[in-house]
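Course assignment 3, question 2. Fill in each field.
Student: A.L.
Task: Predict the tertiary structure for the chain below.
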Amino acid sequence: MNSPTSAQAEPQDAGGCECLEFDSWWNEGRQRRFVFVRYSMSRGTFQIAIDQDSNLYHVPTVYAARTGEAVTVWDLHVGAEIDILGRITTLHHCSQMTAQWNKYWAGRLQPLRDRLMTELQKYETRKPEPWLSFQKVSPDAGSVDLRMLMSQVSELNSRLEKYRPRLAEKLCIPSEMLAIEEVARHPAEDMMASTDDLGFAGKQIPAELLPHSTEAQKTPATSPRRPK
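Answer field:
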């Protein structure tokens, strides 16, 4: 199985990325199981390959390990914990394109958050909650939590709007980000037709490739279970 980190050409525009690709793994006893995860932004679905299986299997929904919410484009980053077919795993590495995508949007959001914090200090004397400025520092490429940044910008923007509504209109989440997420949540193309064209419609992950748990083995690739 090829690693997504083998991407060759550097994209001209990181904002034009179409798929996010990650490597992950988990341990079962002394055996390490490797998984390749690809998320299509135009379809809002996942494809995965486990161990040395050369096939990519269609998984329409993956869930966040901590919240149980369906994962979408802005939730994916190196270090994120997700539930794949009943197995909690951490995304460890990403492709070059995915890393550039992550860096590009972080570069759009972080200045917005910092400017909002600065403007609010002119009107509010109380110290803002720690989570509004929290940023996990990691040397790994593609590790910025974009969902956290979006939440910070959204909350700070709503507070600034009380004092400077016109300025708040300018310091908001980029409209492109909202549009990208909308496309991922509600793909324009018919899902079955799209997967048929790619040649993996209806494929089920072989039982021997699934995590070694009874519940996971009963879970087909097209119907992952929501974590309890």
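Instructor remarks: The chain is about 30% helix and 20% strand. Residues 14 and 100 are 5 Å apart (CA to CA).
Grade: pending
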